[in-house]
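Re: the 434-residue chain
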Amino acid sequence: MDDITREPTTIRAEDINPRYNWGRALPALGTMGVDFEERVDYRRLHRYRLGRITAALEKSELGALVVFDVNNIRYLTSTKIGEWERDKLCRWALLTRTSADPILWDFGSAAVHHRLYAPWLKPENCKAGLIGMRGTVNPAFGLMQRFAKEIAALIRDAGVANMPVGVDIIEPPMLFELQKAGLKIADGQQVMLEAREVKNVDEIALLNRAAAMVDGAYHLINEELKPGIRENDIVAKVNEFLYTHGSDDVEAVNAISGERCNPHPHNFTDRMVRPGDQAFFDILHSFMGYRTCYYRTFNVGRATSVQHDAYKTCREWLDNAIALIKPGVTTDKVCSVWPKAQDFGFPDEMLAFGLQFGHGLGLALHERPIISRVVSLEHPTEIKEGMVFALETYCPAKDGYSAARIEEEVVVTDKGCRVITLFPAEELPIANRY
C-alpha cells in the first residue's frame, strides 16, 4: 500500500455543477460494488464535495476553513472513524483557498490508517492530533496552544493569514488560542452549509438508498404493531433491521403511541400499545453518512372517525406543500400553506416549531433549506434543483390525545420534485386490522 500512486486533486467543472438526468428513475442501489453497472462513484463524490467547498470558500471573505463538525470533516475529507466520535471534538481539518488539498488531524492511529487506505488525501496531510476532547484534556496542558500555532503557520504558508478564518463548532479555549496565534476568527458554518445544500447524483443515490431501507423498516412495523408490544420493542426491532441492512448509524427511532401523541414528545418509552391506539414513528438513520427523517402514522387494529380526520388533514397540509416544490420557489410560499400555530392548538409559532416543518437532508439531519413559519415568512430562501429535504406535518385529533404525523423526503428536480419515501401513506394505515 505504501507504493500506491496518488494523483493530485483535480476539481472538475462537471463535478461542481452536475445535472442529473431527471428522465431516469432514481436508483435504489444494493450495498455492493459491481462491475456491470454504474452505482455510486465515491471518488466523484469526493471531488464534488471538495469542489463545492472550494467554490463556496472563493465566494466568501474567508481565507481558510477550520472544521471540527464531523459532518463537515466527512464532506471535506471523505473520512469517518465511527459514530462514537460525533460529539468528542477530537478531529479537525483545514482547507485554504490557495490549495485544493485538505489537511486532516485525526485520532491517533486513524491518521496512519488514512495514509494507507485514503489515497485521495496526501499522506503528509494525514496528521495525528489531540486538543481537548471537550475539556477532558485541560487547556493548561498546552496541546491547544501547540496545534493553534501549527494551524496558524500553515495558514501563513498558504498566504491567507491576512484574511478571516472560518470555524464551525469549536471549544472556547481552542478559539482563544487561534486568536492568540494571530488569526481573525469568523463564522465558517454558513460557508459549509452553502456548499452542502445542492446534492450531486451520488449523494441523491445514497439518500434514496437510505430511504429505501426505512421503507422496509415500516413494513416491519406494520406487521409487528399489535396490542401488547411496547414502543421500545418496536425501536429495538427497527434498529436490528437497519443495521442488518447496512446502516452505519441509527440516530434515533421516535415511537409515540396513544395518549403520548399529543403533545408530540419526540422520543420513545416502554408504553404498551393498545387496541385503537394511534401511533407515529420517526426513523432517523444514515447509509454511508446520508440521513433520513421519515415519519409514518398507523392505527392499531381500528381507528375512530376523529383519528381518520386528523390523518386526512395532516396529509392535506403535506400535499399542499409538496405541490409547490420546484426550483425558484421560495420557502415563505411553502410554509404559507401550513396552518398557523393557533389553528392546531399552540399559542405561538415557537412552541409549534418543528411540527409543520421542512429541512434539508445530507450528512446532517438538518441542512438547508429550513422551512418554518418561525423563520421563512420574514427570511425566505430559494429552493434549488438538486436540493433534498424532508417535509413534515402534524395534526392533533379532536379526542384531545391522538395525533397524526407524516413526513416525506423529496428531491428537487428541474421541474418539480420526486418523493423518495415510498411506504404508503396516502390514507391512514391500519396495522393488523380487526
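The CA atoms of residues 278 and 299 lie 4 Å apart.
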